[in-house]
Batch of 3 targets.
Target 1
Amino acid sequence: MELKAVRYEVTENEAGHRIAVIRIARPEALNALNKQVLSELKILLQELGSKRDVRAAVLTGEGDKSFVAGADIKEMENLTMPQARELALQGQTLFSKLEELPFPVICAMNGFALGGGFELALACDFIIASSKAKWGLPEVTLGLIPGYGGTQRLTRQVGRALARRIAMSGEMFTAQQGLDFGLFTQICEPADLLPTAMKVATTIASRAPNAVAWVKEAINHGGDKSLAEGLKIEADLFARTFETKDHNEGIAAFIEKRPANFQGN
Ligand code: CAA
């Protein structure tokens, strides 16, 4: 199936490392997540999940105004209760798939990231935002609550008080506030956003891919558990790195005082 509302390309950098750039491309509706975008995103995630050679991805929105302005409000107009539950579960499942990709996904938040759009950003590994980004969970202004994981991922990210403040007010926040709240790792001028995200992706892509994937796994799976359980997950994954060729290469490169050349095995 040809993808129209979600575009993606895989770029190969000088070192031969492959980085995917994904764009939500429905600019006429500020990239709002309608059925088409969700089903294309599902197809794309299936494809990306099977690509063992992709080392990182950057997710952004088409155009210079919006990352994603939320779930498509017009499509929600006449939903019944079972249909609404189905929609939430569909979006949640999709965003969890994104979160579980075996490589990091960096959100390059290029503008509005509201409701489902902000929830999509929260399912990425981290967020680099344009200074023009405006974000929030405005669902309560529509008589709704976040349905694509917002109450859960936001709480885990910033704690209960801030999550309540953000989701109960429905207010729009600035990029600087996102940085202050610990939600964004960096803010850039709009023109620098993609180059910056690509630069960070390039650095990550140069590291041992299994090690990066297992850092992701340890943080995602250990972060919500007790410290003892989280530490066990970390120890198990640390041990697994000793079965990889890349750990031999990394240690040898250090001893031989040369850059490591990781093959992802
Ligand atoms: N759904 C459907 N269409 C949307 C949309 C959305 N979430 N956001 C914007 N659009 C459409 C507008 O209807 C408009 O289309 P028309 O030209 O056909 O009228 C077009 O995009 C441009 O939008 P505006 O004219 O409104 O642009 P603006 O610059 O004046 O305002 C905005 C920008 C503040 C982001 C405003 O569009 C807005 O408030 N959008 C809705 C944001 C929102 O409430 N998102 C949460 C959705 S609910 C949700 O996501 C539930 C969940 O958790 C699953």
Target 2
Amino acid sequence: MSKQHVPIKKNDEIDVIFEDLTHDGKGVAKVDGYPLFVAGVLPGEKAKIKVTKLNKGYGFGSLVELYEKSEFRIEPDCPIFAECGGCQLQHISYEGQLQAKEKQVRDVLGRIGKLENVKVHPVLGMKNPWHYRNKAQVPIGEREGGLVGGFYKQRSHEIIDMEACLIQQEENDEVLQKVKAICGEFGIRAYNEKSHKGTLRHIMIRSGKVTGEIMVVLITRTPDIPNRRKLVERIVSEVPGIKSVVQNVNTKRTNVIFGEQTNVLWGEEFIYDYIGDVKFAISARSFYQVNPDQTKVLYDKALEYAGLSGEETVIDAYCGIGTISLFLAQRANKVYGVEIVPEAIEDAMRNAELNGITNVEFEVGEAEKVIPQWYEQGVQADVLVVDPPRKGCDETLLETIIEMKPKKLVYVSCNPATLARDLRILEDGGYETMQVQPVDMFPHTTHVECVAKLRLKPSP
Ligand code: SAH
């Protein structure tokens, strides 16, 4: 296909067979080599589609008629699957989702990382891939005087009320319904984006999977909440397991959910939860993994790949609230963690103390700046773990790793594309990718997490 040649026109209706699924869950069909992306279709399916948009190298279409269904196609369990957009893959059986995610990892490692032969294991999925989220966070609006809360209708700011979310822990849904109803009874007005009036912007519920502790967070436009004392009393009396009611004040005209000021209205500032044996304090604003069961699976794999004997010095780059660091510290001589967000490091230090773990040191800063400093100060890491955000590792950090030459690397990644890019750089710098384990942290969504094990190639 020549670069300019686009073999179809807008509004054409054509028959195609889908070959692949994109990282965001769209089906891919090729017309004379020209790729078309269509939502709601699966690899192997034959369909009539309408061409909706054409770009230079690729286009989009919408489904008109499905002729042949994939063996993996199922009816989505959730009645609002199509409107909500929170899940993208409920029309694929869970087995099909896991296979698609494995293929995606394999393909991207080959295409971007030139790692066609690397060992990629089948995705570690959940036995029960429902009701896994420990955090619910919904915008609040008004309909005929009552409060509604749920999600924004796609491409709009209209709030659709949601009674239950199938990937949410069930108690979170129940608590959310109760809090919504109580706030409504007390005449609390929902925040109105257009007029910048009203009080309640969002409700957030966090729960400890192991401990059953519940935190309710009311995000309000004003510091004042009408009838606050009585309102809080009612919430406390109606929510079993409640340990904390918190207000966050966001006075700004913004899409950002949280504001600067957080006040405890009742109970504790923190709830607690465990991942394995490690206890964590979770505040309204702390980052904490939303699928605690699969987090354990992921970290166990990271620990296995680190292969610790108890003698090692380990660096945990991008350590967040220290989850991986504390996991590793139980099996290492010393762990150093670095993270850019100061509040996360405060949490990490608190969590270390909470567990009586003393062989960890945390520092605030950019991994790419702090780790070279440690290196200059003589810190010799045997194992280095990275768990960067979606954009992957900073290049300076990869260069430092290549210079420091830790024997083992464990790369935890939430984005296979940047993982592939970084593994290529590390391979060229003397490392060998031994194996990659994808883990399904977010069933029914397109996300896939991976852990990769690398070792320094023996010098020839
Ligand atoms: N390992 C943690 C968090 C991983 S998320 C866990 O499993 O819970 C990635 C983290 O990297 C975030 O906490 C983010 O704040 C942090 N981060 C982003 N850029 C960074 C940088 N340049 N240096 C250090 N940390 C960074």
Target 3
Amino acid sequence: MTDTAISFRDVHKRFATTHALKGVSFDIKRGEYFGLLGPNGAGKSTLISITAGLAQASSGSVAVLGHDVVTDYRAARRALGVVPQELVYDPFFSVREMLRLQAGYQGCGKEVWPWIDELLERLELEDKGANSIRQLSGGMKRRVLIAQALVHKPEVVILDEPTAGVDVELRRTLWDFTRELHAAGHTIVLTTHYLEEAEELCDRIGILNHGELQVLEDKNALLGRHPYRFLSLELAAEGTTEALPAYVERLVEDRHDNTIDLKLKQGEDFIGEVIEGVRGAGWRIVDVHTREPSLENIFVELTMDEDSATTGDTA
Ligand code: ADP
């Protein structure tokens, strides 16, 4: 059995005026919790649509558990559950009927009905099974979307922005649920705009930018490799009028109230020297905080390059 959950091989997608994917190649490993990140227009949805068989690559190939999504699409589809952003449903069906129908489309019979009831329970939908879908709130519909993608117990689960626009409580429920699925052996692929979500959940991160894979790295290595840390100095309000020393001034990222935020390059800028320099200029330091960079800091740095204004560029 293959160790690879999804393999992308030199995937290109050209629309009339846009080269949305420019030769994307990487593997998502079986059993990992993978975060697919990237700014708007990077190509994430296009890559997922191709994987789900909803769009065709212009060239290259995608396989799920070794099954090519074009030539072996039935097996690929069976192995994959995709939680889309939007719910397309027949308003006259109840939640339970709709899930059973969905299982039927996937080639499953009554043997998965107990699993459907379990899904309803785990997504806190157990008392909504008989309701018609149009009676549900937005958050409840979101849960149904997730259940719908899982009716056939796919080994590989892709969640496309599952928490966009949901409240904090549902976000927690969904995070916990995806963690349970992961612990039960499912491969999880998450696309998200919330970087703290990727930071909290994912083992490995891929960053797409302008249709190319820019980063593919273990999350901890990515966080650890980043050569900066942040230092905030709260200065006494009745400070001096002296300027900060030039070598401190060039590290300043932001000033608010009496606080200055500095970005220090590891191995080059030293906290002790900065503090001595600020004190030496006559300032009194009231409080000091340091912070390691978050995935968000790294993401912004990696994707906000000088040509970011051309996101979605033509080629
Ligand atoms: P993301 O999901 O990362 O925001 P998308 O995959 O939606 O990015 O889009 C990648 C690029 O492809 C964008 O420039 C987008 O405008 C373009 N694109 C996506 N779908 C279509 C389409 N159906 N027709 C033309 N261009 C498209």
